């Protein structure tokens, strides 16, 4: 405290406030808004955001059909998640299999689809090319795992997050670590739907 002996009480209080603000803001996780602002303003050069991918709020157990419908609509193939679900939803499983989504997308006019095991570098490349990948994640706990499809529409290496549509009414961010932990459980299952050249 000898260093600050010459400071008044107000001066020391102000200095303490500055230090506390630095600690608090340094420990705060990024928000969707801060990540998107960094990308769109050009301040985050290690990032990209695909514009124009529709956000579709998924129906009950329709994350797969909602994800596929969003990507197909983005590529100019108007379809609803209910139309997709009518062809790919499996009542007995109460969900959707990636193979059925792949076949549905392959049958669509003007689209190519492939399924493979991806990685973070692949996500970056696809997003930079404005081709949003659909990832299959396993969430939940070990005894009660839950499969979930998401559409990745952006990433930031600065913040180490992806921006994705997860079936809610707005995009969300997820850290690379959390994404990899959930994605690893599906052997990094990736469905890519792109326009035919």
UniProtKB/TrEMBL annotation:
Domain Peptidase C39, first and last residues per copy: 58-190
GO biological process, one term: proteolysis
UniProt-recorded Gene Ontology molecular function terms: ATP binding; peptidase activity
One Gene Ontology cellular component: membrane
Pfam family, any one: Peptidase_C39_2
Protein known as: Peptidase C39 domain-containing protein
Natural source organism: hydrothermal vent metagenome
Organism placement in taxonomy: unclassified sequences, metagenomes, ecological metagenomes
């Amino acid at each position: 405290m000898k260093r600050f002996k010459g400071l008044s009480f107000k001066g020391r209080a102000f200095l303490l406030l500055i230090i506390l603000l630095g600690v608090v803001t340094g420990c705060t996780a990024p928000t969707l808004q801060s990540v998107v602002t960094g990308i769109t303003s050009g301040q985050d050069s290690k990032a990209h955001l695909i514009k124009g991918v529709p956000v579709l709020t998924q129906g009950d157990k329709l994350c797969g059909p909602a994800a596929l419908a969003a990507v197909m609509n983005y590529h100019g193939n108007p379809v609803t998640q209910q139309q997709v679900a009518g062809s790919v939803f499996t009542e007995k499983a109460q969900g959707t299999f990636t193979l059925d989504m792949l076949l549905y997308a392959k049958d669509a006019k003007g689209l190519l689809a492939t399924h493979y095991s991806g990685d973070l570098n692949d996500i970056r490349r696809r997003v930079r090319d404005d081709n949003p990948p659909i990832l299959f994640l396993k969430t939940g706990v070990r005894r009660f795992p839950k499969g979930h499809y998401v559409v990745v529409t952006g990433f930031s290496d600065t913040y180490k997050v992806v921006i994705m549509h997860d079936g809610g009414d707005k995009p969300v961010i997820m850290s690379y670590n959390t994404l990899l932990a959930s994605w690893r459980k599906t052997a990094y299952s990736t469905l890519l739907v792109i326009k035919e050249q």
